Amino acid sequence: MKTIPFHNDLHVHTNLSxxxxxxxxxxxxxxxxxxxxxxxxxxxxxxxxxxxxEKRGLTDITGVAYALRLREELEHFRDTAPVPILFGxxxxxxxxxxxxxxxxxASEFDYVLxxxxxxxNFPGEYINYDLSTPEKLRKMVIxxxxxxxxxxxxxxxxxCHPLYPILSPWEQEIVDGITDSQLEECFKLAAEKNKSIxxxxxxxxxxxxxxxxxxxxxxxxMLSAAKACGCKFHFGSDAHKADAFRGKHxxxxxxxxxxxxxxxxxWPLLDEKKHPTKLDGSDACVEPLYFKEW
Length: 294
Ligand SMILES: [Zn+2]
Ligand SMILES: [Zn+2]
Hints:
Elements: E1 8-12, H1 26-29, E2 40-47, H2 50-55, H3 63-75, E3 85-92, E4 111-115, H4 134-150, E5 157-159, H5 171-176, H6 180-192, E6 195-200, H7 217-228, E7 233-236, H8 249-259
Parallel strand pairs: 1-2, 2-3, 3-4, 4-5, 5-6, 6-7
One zinc ion binds at residues 90, 115, 118, 160-161.
């Protein structure tokens, strides 16, 4: 089975994401790929609901049409990119709502990542839910992970920053409080539903305590549980600018190494039988929708 190369980063943002600086484009990252040792790069801007675009003055445009602007931008690098590039997106998936990407639009992308834990990032979407304690927020984070696993797209699908309570002041308590059996239940489901688990920047961010190597034992525990359940993985720096990209991949790789995640555990991204880019209608493995094969 053909998997993605071990040295990958499939979660990178450009200025089409409102949370990224306005001068960050695909060209920001491409010159850095070699020094980071990457063999595959994937862009995943946020796939916004139309109502979120409207708030930014972007009326009469769908989230997909907005996201596709990056594909045009990437076209300029078709012959010069230092590594193969994939075109993905980060799908918003709020509690009790449909995802921001409709199933029929998914084939515009090489792959999708589901953002199940954008909870405190979008407080307005959770106004009707009591998230006033670490226990309540933890339950929402777990419920959302399960809901993400149940989403079925006709393209390879991963879960970005799995079980990461972004922006929560209780991050350590929430993550450490997820029991072994809850982790097993979550990751068995992810493995069963072919959802790739992201080795994410939360492993070295400051939300949980880090060890002498600058890596969080709390998230190592989580990744170990995912590995034990047979999950497949990809890496995600979740960079929104060069500084969040440069020098970070060695930390992501080190985390994988400490958990025993190897090349054999990487995401068989292009082997998904349902991948829609098979132009001849066969079930054969196909080239990425966007760029050259690695
Ligand atoms: Zn995210
Ligand atoms: Zn992201």
